[in-house]
Description:
The structure is a homodimer of 155-residue chains.
Chain A lengths: L3 H16 L6 E6 L2 E7 L2 H4 L6 H13 L7 E7 L3 H10 L3 E6 L1 H6 L4 H9 L8 E4 L2 H13 L7
Parallel strand pairs in A: 3-4
Antiparallel strand pairs in A: 1-2, 1-3
Amino acid sequence: MANPEFMREAIRLSIENVKNGGGPFGAVIVKDDQIIATGTNRVTANHDPTAHAEVSAIREACRRLDTFDLGGCEIYTSCEPCPMCLGAIYWAHIDKIYYGNNKTDAAAIGFDDSFIYDELALPREERQKAMEKLLPEEAIAAFELWTKTTDKTEY
Amino acid sequence: MANPEFMREAIRLSIENVKNGGGPFGAVIVKDDQIIATGTNRVTANHDPTAHAEVSAIREACRRLDTFDLGGCEIYTSCEPCPMCLGAIYWAHIDKIYYGNNKTDAAAIGFDDSFIYDELALPREERQKAMEKLLPEEAIAAFELWTKTTDKTEY
């Protein structure tokens, strides 16, 4: 069940972050009706292009819970996650996403979310970002070793 | 121009990482024909679902160059980036991507790359991951503040 107070906290963080020299984005991760981690966009402040609100909150939640699996958690984010953050949410196995603004709103104030969504949906060769396959016959060795390895942690 | 030796280093890291209890993925970031950062998949080892090889290499490169903009850099990754990592590569403004294995190879050994690509290409309401819009009329305040703020760092 959506709890508007958690979204209000994400929004409060997003506003506060602008005042603190960051981007207008905030997120909170909730488990058992408690906030277990928060995040804001600190890309320019921390010199980390991956430090979006959601990624920051996921990393913090994993540190606090000492796990790489946030199954049983929900994320409230002041803006629809970009592809990087949505990918991170899938990898973290977060159950559900609540969002305030959307990718169109983000594009309107100069953020590339919509553009990146469009790019990712295109076949590799049609994207603006150049991608080139190299040495696949050598690269496969790591996957073969992974398959043969029995004492590994899958996720 | 592609330099196979940089890909060989990414592949070497991917193989070594399996032996060190990590996933079969490695990446290097190159600028001016020099490796400036490397990364491997440490998701399970570090309890960080965002610690893929490419994200780790991007964070390290930004730390070393003291910037959030990796324009002028190229990434060599032992496997095609997943959506999270590809998103990070766009946000970091890396010029070009060289990859060895692809998302189909990754899916074949149990990684969700292809599934997440398929999900992101779907309209929100058709995805398996539940997404719900909440309080957009309140969330927009942060974007309005961002627009009005003049001493901000855009990217």
